[in-house]
């Protein structure tokens, strides 16, 4: 049994927003994801760090969920900035159960992998600030991350975010403060693609090791986190 993570599959099997149009690594990305997941065994766990589907509703995203569910491994999912289908936890849990999806939510909660707590939320990003979003939304993400970490108790905590809390030229001090407060040693983030990947801050910063795990950065192969 092993733990993996990957972000940004950006599936569009029911909508007309395939990522192939961006060229480069994204050409044939659905097949690349299918092949990349061959490193995962059925008993393994995979954290999907946001931007799962371009669908606008749960029903519109169903073909994308079917694809993800058919990939090996138990899936733990968190919200990305393009997950417009995201709904209340109760509605999503009901929808997933009705359709036989082996998905668990990382949303105001933590999930356990052996004795390790998997924590996380979407996070916050400079693009949100440029869009005129207010402090209330930032505070909400900070509260969600803290709720997730509190739920972990005294267990070792691994954090998964969609947005990078730090990259070249930008920091989200509120998110970084929560990571420091709970002595988080490892944090994985997604969202950055193509040329933007060079802006990622990876390695150690203020006691936390950061890793970029967007799908194109990983060549569409989930990254192993724990054996």
Q: How big is the Rg?
A: 16 Å
The pLDDT mean sits at 93
* Structural class based on helices, strands and sheet pairing: alpha/beta
How many beta-strand elements? 13
Low-confidence stretches: none
Supply the number of helical segments.
6
Q: Please indicate the count of domains.
A: 1
Layout: helices, strands, pairs:
Layout: E1 3-6, H1 29-36, E2 45-49, H2 62-70, E3 74-78, H3 89-98, E4 103-105, E5 110-113, E6 116-121, H4 126-130, H5 135-151, E7 156-161, E8 166-167, E9 170-171, H6 173-181, E10 186-189, E11 203-205, E12 208-212, E13 223-226
Parallel strand pairs: 1-2, 2-3, 3-4, 6-7, 7-10, 10-12
Antiparallel strand pairs: 1-13, 5-6, 8-9, 11-12
Describe this structure as you would to a colleague.
The chain has 227 residues and is of the alpha/beta class. The chain has a single domain, classed as 4-Layer Sandwich (Purple Acid Phosphatase, chain A, domain 2). It has six helices and 13 strands. The strands form three sheets. It has a six-stranded mixed sheet, with helices on one face. A five-stranded mixed sheet has the order 4-3-2-1-13. Strands 8-9 form a two-stranded antiparallel sheet. A hairpin with a 2-residue loop joins strand 8 and strand 9. The longest helix is centred in the middle third of the chain and has 17 residues. The chain starts with a strand and ends with a strand.
